[in-house]
Design a protein that fits this description.
By secondary structure, the chain is mostly beta strands. It has one domain. The protein is built from two helices and nine strands. Strands 1-5-4-3-2 form a five-stranded antiparallel sheet. Strands 6-7-8-9 form a four-stranded antiparallel sheet, with helices on one face. The longest helix is centred in the N-terminal third of the chain and has 13 residues. The radius of gyration is 15 Å and the shape is globular. The N terminus is likely disordered.
Length: 150
């Protein structure tokens, strides 16, 4: 049964046009606490003296696009809550895999925090998977988040 759903999900992904990585807000189940990939200690990291948290979420299906990167960061809203951004591979779809093992992080005063995260993504043209680096830039002052797959 699982194999059938995986094949169906991959077939659906193959019909989608390739798009840039999508940065959206955290308004659905892809970013809830129940979606944080286990074990939490391997799939979350703190940066900027605890002001920025990265978390990998896994919504299980579709298997070829179930992983997202969630970022909790400044700026804060009127209630003092951090903004929440969710990064996927395409509109509504995540990555086939993400890991914080080996993450790189640096800071550029002109751009903000920059992270390099190992990603696995579905290649609809070949029906295979590829490895890449998800590069994310976060400006804590403006709240701007940008992502690209290298």
């Amino acid at each position: 049964m699982i194999l059938r759903w995986t094949i169906l999900a991959m077939a659906m992904l193959a019909t989608l046009p390739a798009q840039a990585q999508v940065v959206g807000d955290c308004t659905d189940g892809r970013s809830g606490a129940q979606a944080v990939a286990e074990p939490w200690e391997e799939n979350t990291r703190l940066f900027a003296n605890g002001a920025v948290r990265l978390a990998i979420t896994d919504i299980t299906e579709p298997a070829a696009g179930s992983f997202f990167l969630m970022i909790l960061s400044p700026p804060h809203d009127e209630l003092g809550l951090r903004q929440c951004a969710l990064i996927g591979a395409q509109d509504g779809l995540g990555f086939a895999g993400l890991t914080l093992d080996g993450i790189t992080a640096d800071y550029d005063p002109a751009l903000g925090l920059r992270f390099g995260i190992a990603a696995r993504h579905y290649l609809p043209d070949t029906g295979d998977f590829g490895d890449a680096t998800l590069t994310v830039t976060l400006n804590q002052s403006t709240g701007d988040v940008a992502a690209r797959l290298d």
